[in-house]
Each structure stands twice: as structure tokens, then as C-alpha cells.
Amino acid sequence: MNISKRQNALLLALLISLPIIAVVHLFVGLIDISIGDYFDSVFSFDIKNPDHIICRELRIPRMTMAIIAGAGLSIAGLLMQTLFNNPLAGPYVLGINSGASLFVALTIMTGIPFFTSDLGIVTNSLIGAFLFGLIILFFSTVVRLQISLLLIGLMLGSFTSALVSLAQTASNAQELKIFTMWALGSLQKVELNQLPIILACFAASLLGAFLVVKPLNALVLGDREAKLLGTNIKRVRLVIILITAIITGVVTAFCGPIAFVGLAVPNLVRILFKTQNHTILIIASVLIGAMFILLCDIAIQIIEPHFIMPINALTSIIGAPFVIFLVLHRLK
Amino acid sequence: MKILFLTLIAIVVVSCSAKEDKKRAVFNDPEKIEIKYAENFKLKKIKDGYLLELLEPGTKKISQTYEIYPAENKNIISLTATLNGMLAILNSQDLLVGVSDYDHVYDKKIRSKFKSKRIKEYGGTAQNSVEKLVASKANIIFYDIVDEQFPNQEKLKKFGIQVMPIYDWRENNPLAKAEWIKVVGAITGKMKEANEFFDKVEKNYNDLKKLGRSYSTGPTVLCGNLIGDTWYTPSGGNYFAKLIKDSGGNYRYKNTSGTISLTLSIGQILKDNLKTDIWLNPGYRDKSTILKTNPHSKFLGAFRNNIYCYSNGMKKFWEQSASRPDLVLSDMIHLFHPEERSINHLNFYSQIK
């Protein structure tokens, strides 16, 4: 792998910064927790000690989920941008977020027995995300042009938005509030015992991304050139969509939709590293994505005594101006 | 032609001003109706009716004034469960032509009228169209939304439909909420019955309060649940905190100021309530649903077998709890002091399993 000294230094700085920020994240919050509490909560957990419960059941899962959400959505965004050869593509373009939102809306705001059964918001959100992932996978085998797939994804999004609006019209204030709060995203709902499955999905997606590095590097040159270099476009497209569906689906199911990370982080990575080598881009996206969400969540916890800021709102507040800057920068 | 037109205008102007003068004369010295607890409305007797003044919760200044003529209130649409309950207490369900949602109605008579199509559904406040409301031939609509303005209020007025908020939820005393039945008494022309009913509730409540407060120690109590990442629980000045105090319970956040809900993080709730004895009003009927929306609640001490909610008929609670705080108080004394023999049943509450 060709890597410049500058890129090497940047990666090293990111590798050192991430654990530091993660540790800071563990100690930010309204309740003072000591290092000893963390050790005890892991090695001699006492269910009657509130500090142990806060460490083990709230803060460690929250920090882990922040890393996975940031890293996962950034990888998904990077893959989408390369697949569609469009810097403004992100995980949402496939309509996977919309699928999760639709199923969660139906769970919360309708009396349809299937949705209000024991499945719960997380499971229904996962079903919605994967169902829409499957739909888009099906379309990816039918259509030839990437732009067609992009449009189908956007149309699926509009279609589900309309259905969600219908459900909202028929819902009461409490249901509306629950759905709105879900749509604003949260890193706090994840439980310790759910982390293994989330970590497994993330690891599988990350591994999958590294396995398609070569075709991804070829796709940067364009579909035709990639084909000439021996890339099986259809298969690569399928794998990329599968990876994106898994990671976006899992993150959306457990945290709600988190906007702009998948769009902004890969672009920031490209600006910083000035490379099209996807090995570097994937590693950097993982590190910067994780740090971005961790920092956002640290900010949220610092301002929490004065103002409750949902994660999706903060990522949008930071992400939207960045994307505008990006568009203006490219237009120049 | 010109003369005829001017004459017509003159007649309209004169008749309008005459009507206005007549009303003003009536309002010169209206007789006040006694309001003992409620702080957000005043009621005065005027000729053939009542004058209702709604007050701003903070400043206590008059924010809205309504002339109520019971004889005119033949067709009522009620978009609030509290009003349905109060109409049922005064046996005035016959006046109803519409409710928000049949599934939210508890009263048997209203339900049967719905089945015989004499009462229709009008959905939530935001979902109503002007034409649908005009077609109902209602002359008054009651709502309880936070916004002061009912959608299309001015247009509805042109069709002779008055809209009126029921702000019992703004009151910070359980008996003040119940006192809104006097407004319903004015609307239905059953003020005597409303006063008698309120006096009965007041006596019951005060007797039970004496009983509840006679216990020197009571269980520690937590309320509410998570919505999103925020745990909403009544602050110390809220009517529900007063109910807990009056029933001899020790509310965990009794010393907080204000009347609106406190917004706390799950971390704070866990820190404060691992050993709290009783968890009230999680908003769900079973533990599995609670765990789905709030998985960390399993660490709360009360989670194992001390969660109670008004699940012994949620519709019944929403319809009756405002007008029957004595029954809510009775339930709470029963939950907090099971050794108390004078109360042997629950009206609204049941254990969440």
C-alpha cells in the first residue's frame, strides 16, 4: 500500500486521538464517576451500586455505540459515494433509513397488530431497514445504470415519507412525541447485552468493505474502466449494497436515524487525505466517523443540564453547513 | 335605490348597537360563582347564562372571555376526555354530537350513542376540517390542546360555532381540576348539580387526605417514564406531587420547584431511584412493553413487583380522574398503605406485571 508521510502522520494522530476521546466520553456526564467505578463495574459488578449500573449499562454501551454508529455510517457513506460516483450520496439514498422509519412509525402510531406485537421498536426498525435493503438489492440486479438505482432509492424515500405522514396524521400527541424523539436519534437506548450482535454486524461490514477495496479503487475510474480492469460490477454493487444495508440498518435500528455523518465524513476524509486509495479512506473514515459522533455526544452531555440536544439534530447542525461548504467549494 | 340601501345599513347598525348595549347592561354587575380551588378560570352569572373568564396561568390576567347560554348549547363536540367524563357525571351525554375518538371513550351511554350513530368521531384537534365541523351542526366545540387558538377558530365563529378550551390540566391542585365541573355545569345549565357534586368530592378528598397524612412514614415514590432520552416526572408543585403527599407517600422529587414536568436523564433516575419503593404511571400496561421503550428500567428497585399504573381502565382514568381526585387519592392510599383497612379496592390503578 502506497502511503505518504503526511497520510501516515495523520492516521497515527487519529489512532492516538480516538481512544483519548473515547475515555473522555466515558467521564463526561451529569453524574461523577471515578476510574475505580469503571474497573469495579467490569470486574466486580454490584447490581445494587447505582454508579456500577451507570458505568456498565449506560456509559460503556453509549460510548461503544457512538464509535460504531460514527464509523459504520461513514463507511456506508464512503461506499455509496464511490458506487454512485457522487460525493453527495450517503447511506440514506438507498431508502434504508426510510424503511426503518416507516416500520417504526407503524409500530408507534398505528394499531396494526403485527407492528404493535412484542417485536418492539428496534426489531421492527431492523426489519424495515433490511426489507428496504432487499428491495434495493433486487432493483440493483434489474437496472443497469447507477443513477437509476439512486433515483429508485430516493423515490422509495419519498414514498415512505408519505406513508409516515399518514400515520402521523392519525396519531395522538403522545405517539407523535415518541416517534419524533426516535427520529431525533439517541445513543442511550443500547444495552450491554445487545453490543455483541451490533459489534458482529459492524465487524462483518468492515471486513466486507476491506474485501472490496480493489474493485472500489477501480470504480473511482468509472464503470467502463472498472470493467476493463476485470471488475464484476454487478457483484461488487451487490456486496456494497449489502454492507450498507447491514450497517445502516443496525445503526438506525438501535440509535434512530443519524443524518449527515455518512455524507460529511467521507468527504472530509477525502479532503484531508487527498487519495482515492480505499484502504486509507476506509481506515480514516472509521476513525474520523467514530471521533465525530463521540465529540458530538460529549457536547450533548456537556450542555445537557441546560438544554437537551438530540444526536440527529446536532449532527445535522454541524453536517448541513459542511455539505453546503462542500458544494460551494466544488462549484468553484 | 340609494335611499333604500342607506336605510338598510342604518337599520343594521342600529340593531347591532342595540344588541351590544343590552349585553353590556347585563354584564354591569354580574354575580360571581364561588370558585374555591381553581386558579385558571372565573365564572359569573349573567342574564340567561354565565360569563366564563379564562386566566393566564402565570399572570392570572384574563386571557379569554366566553358568554355561555346553556339554552343554546344543544349540540356539543367534545375533543377532550375530561369533558366527556364531566358530561357523564351531570348526565348530559344527550348534548354530545361528537367526540375525538370512539376508542378513547369509557362512558357506556356515550358509547351506545356512538353505536346508534347519534355521536360521531371528529379526530384530534388538528385533523378537523371546517366543513366537517359545520356539517355536524354543533354549536360549541371543546378542546384541550396547549395552543390557545383552535384551528380555523374565526371561520367556525362565522358559522355560529364557538370553540372553548378546557384547561383543567393547567391547575396545580387536584380539587382545582375537579372544580372545572362548574364550567360544565354552566354549559349544560346544571350548575346546582355541579356544585353538589363538587362539594361531595371535596369532602371525600379532604377526609381521605386526613387519613393519608395520618401516616408518619410512607413509601418512596417515583413517577413517569422515558420519552426519547428524557424521563418526564411531575415537579414538586405539580398536582400529582400533591396527590402523593396527601396520600402519605414520599415522592422522590417533592422538593423540586415549579409545576411542570421535570426532565431528567435515565442516569439521574437510576442514581436517585435504585431503592425507591414504588414506581407510578409508567404509561404502559405490562413490563415487557416498558422494557421495550426503557430497557434500563429493569435496574430500578420498584421494577420487580412495585409498578402501578392506571391500567385498570386507562380510558376510565382519562375520563374520570380530573373530576374524581378523591378516587385517585383513595387508590394511592391503598397502594402506599396496604395495611389501611378502610380502603379495600382500587378504582383506576393496578399492578403492572
Task: Summarize the structure in words.
The complex is a heterodimer of chains A (332) and B (353). Chain A is mainly alpha-helical and 332 residues long. Chain A has a single domain, classed as ABC transporter involved in vitamin B12 uptake, BtuC (Orthogonal Bundle). Helices cover 77% and strands 0% of the residues of chain A. Chain A contains 15 helices and no strands. Chain A has helices at 5-27, 35-43, 50-83, 96-109, 113-116, 120-142, 146-169, 173-183, 195-211, 213-219, 223-228, 233-255, 261-273, 278-303, 311-331. In chain A, α3 packs antiparallel against α12 and α13 packs across α15 (311-331). With 353 residues, chain B is of the alpha/beta class. Chain B folds into two domains: 23-169 and 176-189, Rossmann fold; 208-351, Nitrogenase molybdenum iron protein domain (Rossmann fold, 3-Layer(aba) Sandwich), CATH 3.40.50. In chain B, 38% of the residues lie in helices and 18% in strands. Chain B is built from 13 helices and 17 strands. Chain B has helices at 2-27, 81-89, 108-115, 130-135, 153-158, 174-178, 181-188, 191-213, 239-246, 266-273, 287-293, 314-320, 325-336, and strands spanning 31-32, 41-46, 49-55, 62-68, 76-78, 96-99, 120-121, 140-143, 162-165, 220-223, 225-227, 230-234, 250-251, 261-264, 278-280, 307-309, 350-351. In chain B, the strands form four sheets. In chain B, strands 7-6-5-8-9 form a five-stranded parallel beta sheet. Chain B is globular. Chain B starts with a helix and ends with a strand. Chain A binds chain B through residues 29-31, 47-48, 50-51, 53-54, 57-58, 118, 120-122, 169-170, 172-174, 177-178, 180-182, 184, 186, 188-189, 191, 304, 308, 310, and chain B through 123-124, 127, 227-230, 263, 265-268, 270-271, 274, 283, 288, 292-293, 295-296, 299.
